[in-house]
Amino acid sequence: MQYSKSFIFTVREDPKVAECVSHKLLLKGSFLYMVSSGIYSYLPLGLRVLENVSNIIRKHMNASGAQEILMSALQPIEIWQKTGRDEVLSEVMLRFKDRKNRTLVLGPTHEEEVTEIVKKHISSYKQLPRILYQIQTKFRDEARPRFGVVRSCEFIMKDAYSFDVDEEGLARNYEAMRSAYQAIFKECGLNFIMTEAESGAMGGNVSHEFMVPAEIGEDMLCECQKCGKHFKDMSNCPECDSKLNERRMIEIGHVFKLGTKYSKAQEALFIDKDGVRKPVIMGCYGIGVSRVLAAIVETNYDDKGVIWPKSVSPFDVQFVCLDEKLIPEASSMVESLERNGFNVLFDERSEPAGVKFNDAYLLGNPYIVIIGKNYASSKKIDLEIRKTRQKTSLSEEELINFLKNEYGK
Amino acid sequence: MQYSKSFIFTVREDPKVAECVSHKLLLKGSFLYMVSSGIYSYLPLGLRVLENVSNIIRKHMNASGAQEILMSALQPIEIWQKTGRDEVLSEVMLRFKDRKNRTLVLGPTHEEEVTEIVKKHISSYKQLPRILYQIQTKFRDEARPRFGVVRSCEFIMKDAYSFDVDEEGLARNYEAMRSAYQAIFKECGLNFIMTEAESGAMGGNVSHEFMVPAEIGEDMLCECQKCGKHFKDMSNCPECDSKLNERRMIEIGHVFKLGTKYSKAQEALFIDKDGVRKPVIMGCYGIGVSRVLAAIVETNYDDKGVIWPKSVSPFDVQFVCLDEKLIPEASSMVESLERNGFNVLFDERSEPAGVKFNDAYLLGNPYIVIIGKNYASSKKIDLEIRKTRQKTSLSEEELINFLKNEYGK
Predict the structure, then answer these.
(1) In this predicted complex, what is the ipTM?
(2) What is the CATH number of domain A315-406?
(3) Residue A320: in which H helix or E strand, if any?
(4) A11 to chain B: nearest residue by CA?
(5) Which residues in B lie closer than 8 A to residue A6 (C-beta atoms)?
(6) To 5 degrees, how large is the angle CA A191–CA A66–CA A89?
């Protein structure tokens, strides 16, 4: 991608609307465009990160046997009335009548709809277990949308649902999802914490939260300084009775054992081996995909800009050419990098070096390659690692070998 | 993918709600789930086709220099008031107030929002031309949703927008999009027609439609039997004056030269080379992605089911094992096919041969491989081409070579 032809238009000044680091950097770097309070569009750079995060999620979900679907955002109010959640969630649920006088809901979540799908298609224990998931835009009438895509009215979620014949099956799928989540967040470069406590809410069933410690976190987690474990809504550690410290957290994932709450209310029944009709046993598993993007930035930046982990960065390499005369040599190196499977943002603009470096630091691609005046004599280019700011002079061949090694290619 | 673990649950009876062939076959084959009239969810098989179509679109859009973004579905009414389209489109526009008393619209299209994005980021001729596109869910309060995903209230569109400094630039981008569209529809296996006429509507600007002839088409196109060209709203051919015949068509794509209608109303201006502020010159280019899926089925089926073109089929091969004792041999062949880059649906269910064949025909994957009793003696498997129903006996090696050749691998 040539920078001069891209839709990357960074802003020098801090946007007035920015409420936190990730919000500021994602707007300054033209990753996001703010449509209105709590409503954002993804510009090309932001969409690249979002797709990288989504593909990491897909990889681990598919590996755990989950199958991807795409449910409608519009849902008839009737399915929500079956579970009574039209009232429970009424505050955040956007609803309206269409011209046929149907009351439609913009799905803030999809337990009801997926239960209808399973009710329609599954009738026997032979068709179980199954896990379905989707990566989809959700809508919530947020009282206080804030921190950019951390808490917004329109956001992207990965929501998964498991369906089992018994509690043992649910336990197996729940564990499969928990370990998929750990693999996903690790691969996204997040230092996350999983709450170990079993919550009494949601009808006494088990749930775990995945959290990233961050200043702007809206969830409070209690950390035991002695055994290092994390709990919610407790003052003393249930394991060693030490006093717990409070830390602010961004919630990025949540897994629940739902049991039969939805399948009973919606009559999603199957005939078991013993010939008896039983409600399907369910679990649900959410990841805030757009929030993961914000959480990555909140925990990976410096005073110059974002520092993307390799796994999700919009490009692998930002290739900065400081001398117009060197564009032919630079282009040939960029092509060679691309042939070797690297995504390169080639900064061939006629801009001062300072502007180019500022943009490279702000955008936060992990490797910055610089070709400048001394290339003619030395045939060396400079490689700067965005995170450590460490610089090395290398030949083209050495650069490619170094990057191949970094990316395990 | 093992069939017994998949979320593929075909239905033997024709669904009562089905209004046309594609609607019927997509429901029977569990490609789609009908949530409510005009509202559909994509089950795993349907999503696979949708992703294949989307990726063909992405390939050709990216090759033409367009950059992918993802705009919000929610939009403030104010941007629509600038162009007056809050009234023009009021019938199909779903709108509501949120709890902050903002009037929000569920975008039926995105000219206004993309113009705001360009207004925010582009101020100089040096930043032009650009093409942005997205593949996104759109919403319309349809008076008569029908024919499944042909005309629905929630649907997936690819919408692209070009931005230029002058009419010549617009003409270049318009041509680039027209030829990308031809490549896209061709690769999707569609026999499409492009209207050659220049329409007087939309403010005198040029527009072309891409149509697929189909019984359920809602658009009427006039065809000249003499010169073979197609026109809209005419009785005689403007080129040879012959009388035109009427044909029903499904519209799958539409390209427009918009000119400055939106950029003037929304003040999306740039400073040109001559130092003068001018409105950006725009074009817009739409493809009904979910409708393409329906159009493919409407024109590729027989009495047994769908016949997917190779480029978009959910799987390349449906591998049918007719004898449980042969599952080890069959599994090894499926793995070998997968190692060679083929997507295989492995039907290892304990179902009668008739059920398996019916499902293979209904689902419509292009190649059906059958391993049966005579494998033990002959070491041969049968290959059936879904479209022609032609059958051949082959060794495993011959099968792989045949498929490699078919897919150009």
Answers:
(1) 0.96
(2) 3.40.50.800
(3) strand A317-321
(4) B121
(5) 67
(6) 75
